[in-house]
Amino acid sequence: DQAGLDKICPSKPIEECAPGGFRTYSGFCNNVKKPLWGSAFQAFDRMDRASYNDDISEPRKSLNNSTLPACDEISRILFNSYEKKKSKLSLMVAQWANMIYNDMARIGSNKNEHLEQLDCCGADRNNTECLPIENFYISGKKTCIPYARTMPAPAESCSLGSRKQSNQVNSFLDASPIYGINWMKKARLDLKTNGFSSDYNINFNPNTLNEYAAAAGFFFYGLLPEKIVTKYSETKATPIRDAFYNPSLLYEQHGILNLIKFLITESSLIPIGQINNEFRQHFLKTNNHAGFDMMAILIQMGRDHGFHVNDIDLVIMGFLEKPADGAVVGPTFACILARQFAKMQRGDRFWYENYFYPSSFTGEQLSEIRKTSLARILCDNVKNLKEIQPFPFMIPDIYENSVLKCSSNIIEKIDLTPWTDSKFSIKLPMTKEKIKTAIHIAEGRIRQIRSREKKNNQPDIKNDLHDFLPFPHGHHMKPNQIAIDQAKIADVLLEATRILIIQDEFNVHKPIIPELDIDYLQNILPNIDVRDFIGKAKNNNEICNKKPFPCDPTATYRTTTGWCNNIKSPTQGMAFSTFRRLLKPAYNDGNNSFDEPRKFGVNGDPLPSARHVANVIHKSKDIIHKKYSHILMTFGQFLDHDLTHTPMSLALDGSLLNCQRCDSHETVSVNCWPIKIPKNDPYFPSTFDDGSPRCMHFARSLIGQLKLGYREQMNQLTSYIDASNVYGSNDCIASDLRLFSQGKLNISKHLPGIQNTLPFGFKDPDCRVHSTDCFIAGDIRVNENSGLMVPHILFVREHNRLAEKLFMANNLWSDEKIYQEIRKIIGAVMQHIVFKEWLPKVLGHQLMEKYELYLMKSGYFKGYDKYCDATISNEFASAAFRFGHTLIRDTFLFMDPKHNTLMEQIRLKDMFFNITPLNDFNRGGIQSMISGLIRTPAMAFDRFINQDLRNHLFEFKHEPFSGMDLPAINIQRARDHGIPGYNSYREVCGFKKAKNFQDLLDVIDQETIDDLKNLYKHVDDIDLFPGLISEKPISGALVGPTLGCLIGEQMQRLRKCDRFWYENDITETKFTPGQLSEIRKMTMAKIICNNSKNIKKIQPNVFDLPDNHMNKEVDCSVLPDIDITKWLDRDFCFVGNKIIQMGRTKHITPCVSCTCTHYGANCHALRVESCNSLFDQFSMAEIAADTSCVIQCSGMINSKKNQTQ
């Protein structure tokens, strides 16, 4: 009767499952085709058909139809002995297995019509749903275990058939230590190390296996001891029987802590046919009942569920089997467990590694989840747990699983930043029309501001010396047209942000959005899509800044701009992108902090003038470094110009702003923020001749963000170490620097005193007004000082030297191919020198190891992370990487090859924008400058900065007070960028945040602390730059701990986040093993030797001063050089005087053969199977000349030699 069946068991199909992002509590609709699969109250699945006596429901009997042995008797006979054999697994394995079981399976007993428990040992004994276990003895007394049959469940679609048991929870949730690695492989249960999983099978039924739920899933009981032993003030042993339904242990002093320590430090037992008496006699003991025999119950349950294993019950043999290799259970249970977890993993649409929208995690979120460990969960959630082993499922040892502090970085923490809510539209009434209105108002306001500034008598900048005097250094910090166009868009977006947040008097419309928390707005505004507005904005620079899309993952070479280095996020690290931040900016717009420079301290008091801070903290004091040479500083500046260039704001007509007047913010431009000269300044007058206050010119950095929200500054360069200072960061500059012949760069050959130098030009007007000759290079600041020009010249020469060799080796290659390949090599050499020679001196071994910065000695680097972002941090660019200013000497020495000083020293202030020292015959030119740089010491790392940088930066000769103050500019620049104070970054770097000035004594000396205390009202007010370079160097390093942290963090990302990093093992971009070996040979000393005609001897490590013991000078010829033949593009290989065709193998000697591959010749010594056969094939002379043959056949060789004598 179908109608009657439908009434009892409704089978109306579910028409549709919504593709939601989250699970339902019941598991319903996990599978959109089969919505009930895996959900609560569904029937368990089976590995084998059910075995019932009547093929429907009646519990099974023996194969000969006799009654099966009594459950309690089997338990008593087979599980009576108990040996405490311990494993290396901790007891946490058992507890975890128990928790997983409870998540995946719950077996409920049948009840009577009143939904009450059946009294199967009493009034309901004869109920067909009762299977009591009679004759159970406990403490010598006969009793009964009231087993009621498991609640049945209807079959799918309410079809007829044998009895099925109900799972009262849903079936969804690596348990490899349990069932072993072999079964893990068989069931394909490996977790991904990166990326997403595509293993989900919509036709895979995830219902929990009956065999797991009623047998194998209970394996953990065999791992547990008889007592729980906790230790605090005294040792306490609690029998397991007293812990059933009794949470009192948790409420004792340090109860949870004591239990967790017990679970992670005590060994679990090896369950070889044993269950301790606590479970055999006192299972589920209460105050009113002595307990039951758990094994008897499990045996009865297996019979109730129709498990068929001939006569022997499944649970019995499962517990009695010897553990499989690498597992704690035998092969049968291992098989069941592996299949169960395979079902759970591949049948779960919400499995965390799956990529299905809308329930999938993002790649960044998945990367963070993979950091999860039980150790971290316990550390974060167990009060007073201070240390733990990394793998709590294993007992601690003194090796890989030795106990660590919970604060250790080895126990990784999840960063929740990737979960930042970007679905602003759900919480905020921010429609496209409202955004459009805000932008429209912002455009009008920007027009008003520009119109006002146009009337402000901004002087016309001409190519006359005196027109440049108020702001002598501005042109080489000038933005190019790409940056200017981007800033125009950013200005409007920043103004729109102001309107949305402040809604001040300029906005005469009704409020665009309701009043909301400012921090909340700041979090959501950057996520609002403004691409429509950006797309309409004028941009005429696509030729110079190409962005082909989609990205080509097979590209061999970098783009000039850094575009598509990261395939997933093509703009990351790209030129003209904004800096990233380690901390939220600390702008000072009152409560609406998103734009104005940091002007006030934490108590609301104005911060001291940047010049005043520089006068007190950064006064001149000559202390030289005892170990490091001056070229350490020079190379550091060269590296900085490969990574960061923050352009300055301009006047409306594209000319430089004149921000020297103290009121220039009001009278000239909102982007003027001059530095006040304090009274009694040791050098600069505090007033002009007319008595008006005097300030130092300072223009704010150009705005660059293409989104709503905070003011963000722009980096004109790529973030990567890619030698962009040599080649340029956009296609137009790169093209200007090329010769377009044989892959070479342009050079100038005819400057007296310098051969093969940089090409001439006047792209930097600052140089033009100082000097008759100026260089052009990949970075406009090349002319900033004579010393900086040196590495620029050396690396251009090295490019052309290698290009010439590569052209001779591969003369069929095009100019483009040679140029790109040498550019790739030079970029790799730069990376190698930075990380191998320069960075270890700056950071020291401790920080190099902490940030994983040591290079591979052989093989490839496997650490590339496509989800990380190499973008330079604002803190790094505006403060941390300016540390080199303290290393600069105020005089430069010129030396001949014999270390004799030539002529007088030259002052630093006379080297700004001046190339004449490089071709000065009296001083020996560039060769003598190089000798001086590598043989004279740098200044010590401290807070003191020389007077030429403090008072004479970029000054004009014969024009008093026309110079600038570099440390003051550094301080003002960080404030301009909204960089929080130094104390905030101590906390970022894992150090204790100072509560008062004296708390800084751990890293800063008392005299400096006193100076800081006299300047700042609060310890949180200390600016980042003076704070960083006031730190005492850590042991083995040049810099202090916080500065080392900021540099180390950035350098770690420059390595791990660069798809073209030279050590990477990425098929499309990697060097061959032979080529990589050649790059690893290169040193800065060899670069100098290769490209300096008169330098014949040099110390191997040029960043250290020469030392007769540790760094003795050697002949340049001793230093290894790149063998360009590793880049030969041929269909054959040369090995000695023999040629091997590509893909072929050939004997080079009798006992050595080589195979020609695309990576070069791969040679191996052969195993000689028969020395007699060897002599049949080769002559005595050939064999004797082959070491491999001699080693294997020495006896026969000697015998034959004796025969011929």
UniProtKB/TrEMBL annotation:
From the UniProt record, which GO molecular function terms apply? heme binding; metal ion binding; peroxidase activity
Could you name the domain of life of the organism this protein comes from? Answer: Eukaryota
Recorded hits in PROSITE patterns, A to Z, give:
PEROXIDASE_3
Q: Where does heme b bind?
A: 885
SUPFAM superfamilies per record: Heme-dependent peroxidases (SSF48113)
InterPro entries recorded for this chain? Haem_peroxidase_animal (IPR019791), Haem_peroxidase_sf (IPR010255), Haem_peroxidase_sf_animal (IPR037120)
Give me any GO biological process, just one. response to oxidative stress
Query: Which UniProt keywords are given for this protein, alphabetically ordered?
Result: Heme, Iron, Metal-binding, Oxidoreductase, Peroxidase
Protein name, UniProt field: Peroxidasin-like protein
Per the record, the gene is pxn-1
